[in-house]
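Training component of the fellowship. As part of building independent skills, the fellow (R.M.) carried out the full modelling exercise for a liganded target. The chosen ligand was magnesium ion. The inputs are recorded below so that the supervisory panel can assess the work.
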Amino acid sequence: MLGLGKITLTHFKNYEFSSFEFPQQVTGICGLNGRGKTNLLDAIYYCCFTKSYFTNSDALNVHFNKEGFRLEAAFYNNGKDQQVVCIHRGSVKKEFLLNGIPYEKLSAHIGLLPVVMIAPDDIELITGTSESRRRFIDTVMSQVDAAYLLELIHYNKILQQRNSLLKKMDTVESGSATVLDILDEQLIPVGSSIHSKRKAFLQELIPLVQEFYQQISNYAEKVSLEYISQLNHENFEQLLKQNRQKDILLQRSNAGVHKDDAGFLLNGQPFKSIASQGQRKSLLFALKLAEFELLKRHKGFSPLLLLDDVFEKLDAQRMNQLLHWVCNENSGKVFITDTHRERLESALEKLNVAFSIIEL
Ligand SMILES: Nc1ncnc2c1ncn2[C@@H]1O[C@H](COP(=O)(O)OP(=O)(O)OP(=O)(O)O)[C@@H](O)[C@H]1O
Ligand SMILES: [Mg+2]
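Fellow's submitted model of the complex:
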């Protein structure tokens, strides 16, 4: 069982210096708008993922007019204490320590403390660009397969080199084509491996999403999902060859797994264009709960579940159904924010679950 006993935030976002304890299975985090509910969830996420859920810029996480921040969290897993400390000191590289030992590579921490966040803006996952769907897929897979994360980092590095070479190609003549060949040779095995891993992953994820969607919609609707990739039909080497002229002309790489996407259909029609708001939300929850189930299956224990403002997103019936699943059918630790303390308390009381409330 994975849990979090306590977290201390120093100069993190709106927090100057605050500690919070989480003694029960469920923690309700209440307070008015702008009090720091989302920021507290983000601090928890940060300790699991070595970065914010919302931004890649650590400067934005530092309390206004301060130099850096510190997060300290006492996790436990299968009876073992796992203390996480993150120290960010402005310009120097941040330090991230597990039980007092600093990580050389932050990526080594990913997956140790699996976590699933559901936040209002996540609806982007359905309505936004393919990038948000790739990020979702990569976030889940990185927690399950550490080698995948390293391959992804490697792929992006080569891709970046390839793109900057393409940008220079009209000025530098001979030699560039050879360098491009070398980069392609490096890119092909990594890209192909990412493709086959994503394919296998989606084969596992899709039935879970469909099952959750059916439950949430009370079996009224059916969604289908597919993995969209140029590499589904052709091997990567051929694709790179076919796109070589276009790449040089447009000065960027047009073929590869960085173009992958996931397509959603509702009763056979494109989801994005026909689904109602409630249906989009239902699909979002189905995707996230599928993520949760899949992580649990692979890790052998439940991830932490961070629910930000979910009350604002669903009608009472669907909310109660969701909370029932989250609190009664799941034994993992859950953190739920809400602006209405009474609403949250009365919902949790009905569920007969051990909970504590933090009032900000
Ligand atoms: N780097 C920072 N330094 C100081 N304050 C910050 C920083 N970043 C964000 N804030 C403040 O944090 C507050 C927002 O916190 P947060 O998003 O956690 O609120 P919330 O309780 O989730 O509110 P809501 O109910 O509206 O979602 C804002 O007042 C914002 O100005
Ligand atoms: Mg918030």
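The panel noted the following from the submitted structure. The mean pLDDT is 93. Residues 37-38, 308-309 surround magnesium ion (ligand 2) (CB under 6 Å).
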